[in-house]
Amino acid sequence: MLDATARKLIDPPLNALGKTLAARGATADGVTLTGLVLGIIAAAMIAIGQPLLALIPLLASRISDGLDGAVARASKTTDFGGYLDITCDFLFYGAIPFAFVVLDPSANAIAGAFLLMSFYFNGTSFLGYAILAEKRGLETSAQGVKSLYFSNGLLEGTETIGFFVLLCLFPTSFAVLAWIFGLLCFATATLRLFAARRVFTMKED
């Protein structure tokens, strides 16, 4: 819901930094993998009981996630780069809830499982929509230039990052926050399902 607005604010500085990094030989895939490593470090720090300190690599990871596209646009965009980006994103999104389950299994396991199930449903609805949108030749730049079609929704990347920040600030509230966010993920996926039915049941021209 907030991604389009956020992109208007962050794209100019990211694009400028992306041009600088590309000129110095950085690759988009390298930035993507750096972001994943930072995200895994954040998850490991959460799992060993340092969720507040984990905010540093977590936020750095998300900056890298926005920066890889800027580097690609300043150098060379590839379909594999888009594939690698979305794959690393999904691994990161799964690693953070898993880390909180490891941190306190007795308190967080059920809520964490529900949250991961909701991510699975939401992610599938997102990727399925992107596949059919590509087949139909649909395009959008509302969330920046992407390798995949990014359908909007109630919860998007910005909200998810904000949710992870809340979890790190209030780790003892993980279960409550996970149930709430999981329900909102289910709502997002369900609304996207209805949108897909409306768009993709119409005959192609």
Write up what this structure looks like.
The chain is an all-alpha fold and 205 residues long. The protein is built from 7 helices and no strands. The protein has helices at residues 3-23, 28-47, 55-74, 79-103, 105-136, 157-169, 174-200.
Describe the secondary structure blueprint for this structure.
Blueprint: H1 3-23, H2 28-47, H3 55-74, H4 79-103, H5 105-136, H6 157-169, H7 174-200
Helix pairs in contact: 1-3, 2-3, 2-4, 3-4, 4-5, 5-7
Q: Per the principal axes of the C-alpha atoms, what is the gross shape? A: globular
CATH level 4 superfamily:
CDP-alcohol phosphotransferase transmembrane (TM) domain
Class by SSE composition = mainly alpha
What is the arithmetic mean of pLDDT?
A: 89
Structure summary:
With 205 residues, the protein is mainly alpha-helical.
For the structure shown, list the relevant keywords.
mainly alpha; 205 residues; 7 helices; Four Helix Bundle (Hemerythrin (Met), subunit A); single chain; globular
